[in-house]
Amino acid sequence: MKNPIKKIALILILIIILPALIFSLYEINSLNESERVIEEIYNNQLEAILFSVNQYSEDIVSGWRSKLNLLLTDNISHPEYFKAKADSFLSINKAISLIIFADSLEGKSTSKLYYGTGEHENNYSYNIKDFLKNNSAKIKKLYTYERGGYSKIEPLPDESTDTSNVLIFLLDDPADIKNICIMVIDPAKFVRDALGAKIKEIAEDKFIITCSSLKAKNSNEFIFTTEDLQNQKIQQRKNLWLIPNYQLGILLKGRTIEALAKSRSTTSLILISILIIILISGVYIVFRSVRKEMELTRIKSDFVSNVSHELRTPLALISMFAETLEMGRAASEEKKKEYYSIISKEATRLSRIVNKILSFSKIEAGRREYRFSSVSVNRLVEEVFYSYQFHLQNSGFKFSYSTGESVPEIQADGEAISEALINLIDNAIKYSNDKKEITITTGSGQDSIFIEVKDKGMGISEENQKKIFEKFYRVSNGLVHNTKGTGLGLTLVKHIVDAHHGKIKVKSKLNEGSSFILNFPINNKIKL
């Protein structure tokens, strides 16, 4: 296994050096392309700013839409009150030149909320049906979005004039209210009055942000700017969503391209250093993971071998003695009872192995469930003790228990705690040599109770004590390794204790024995 690990380590070292070297050469060569890089930086900055401004503009129009819905729903049946509210709405939002409502794509019924200037009144008094017909495809999309629960606002250029834009959206459709809303806005007023404060807030002292018309003859003719450009050139321009004939422009203040390039060069060197550190850290983590996976593969292989042995032994004994009884080869009734006892004992052993594997499988799949109720730990220990007493005494063990006085009941899964206790006893049996002695003790402290299982067996070294609760782990040397097992018992014990918000401690010395102490909180806050 060492050779593959060395090969992997060599490959990972090459993975560190080559990317770092390639990236360093790339960064040095890219310094001559600083203007292109800065342009990309400007573009990214503009994209973020543009998105913020565009989102804000949509929020404003969405607010207008909500107010129109409320205005129409509450006041359309009272013409005078409706007109007063409408005038108040439009006097506040002066960027709106005209609002027209239509009941359908055919425009069978239309009405105007506000005429604005006579220019707009003349344009839309007679052309509304043609307008709806010419833009029917986009309006149908709005209905599709509306059915999907999304209220979209569709911008259109106003072909009748260069100084306005049209927004189309759908209103809520209570009885007798027009569903299609056509809103004509003045882009210059919309940008200055509605978006100006937000743009200044975003620009702060870092950027100069401008807005200009695509149809303007002079590229430096702006309808809005946060500051005077002083003959500086706009670096990037992007269209606005709701008024696509207008653009936002951006210029970074106070720093030249050369200064930014130098700053970027320094930043690149720092990034190279950080990258090398990250790569080294990553390779170390990958190497540890690979080594751990290889170790886990070996452990799983041992697990399969050990489980096969664990299953084969009781099955062979059950089969042999069952066949002996079936063929009538038992010499006496005492022998029959002995064979039956062996079959029963091995069947119980086989059942415990299978249950242990099934419990582990449920834990791995996240399907292990615990049923909490009031449990007397002393009673559980007594039940387990009397279940094992006869078997252990016949096997030459000195088996005893001592229950503490006034040990309170706790909220726990009694079967799970019994399972944990049985696993600890099984381990104590397996790893006991000549000193066959097992003691179970219970007691309580200020805020917890404990169960201690103590033996005088082989013991566990300090190095292995850190790993014994890992799945499939078994000590890889000495007499402990020669004792067959699944490597799952302590993993199950740890999971059960953790599920009860408890703690498990181990005290052990080689050739002197081991002590496992399970602590459970008295005031367990697990929901029943």
Helices and strands, with pairings:
Blueprint: H1 2-30, H2 34-75, H3 79-92, E1 96-102, E2 110-114, H4 118-126, H5 128-134, H6 136-147, E3 154-157, E4 165-170, E5 180-185, H7 187-203, E6 207-213, E7 224-225, E8 236-239, E9 246-252, H8 257-326, H9 333-365, E10 373-375, H10 377-394, E11 398-402, E12 410-412, H11 414-430, E13 437-444, E14 448-455, H12 462-465, H13 478-482, H14 489-499, E15 503-509, E16 513-521
Parallel strand pairs: 11-13
Antiparallel strand pairs: 1-2, 1-5, 3-4, 4-5, 6-7, 6-9, 8-9, 10-12, 13-14, 14-16, 15-16
Q: Which percent range describes the beta-strand content?
A: 15-25%
Q: What is the oligomeric state here? A: single chain
Q: Reading side by side through the largest sheet, how are the strands ordered?
A: 2-1-5-4-3
What gross morphology would you assign?
elongated
- Based on secondary structure, the structural category is alpha+beta
Terminal residue distance: 48 Å
Overall CATH class of the domain at 369-521: Alpha Beta
CATH-assigned fold name of the domain at 369-521: Heat Shock Protein 90
Number of helices: 14
Helix content: 40-55%
Arithmetic mean of pLDDT: 77
Question: Which second-level CATH architecture of the domain at 369-521 applies?
Answer: 2-Layer Sandwich
Order of helices and strands: HHHEEHHHEEEHEEEEHHEHEEHEEHHHEE
> How many strands in all?
16
Q: Mind telling me the C-alpha Rg?
A: 41 Å
Going by CATH, the homologous superfamily of the domain at 369-521 would be: Histidine kinase-like ATPase, C-terminal domain
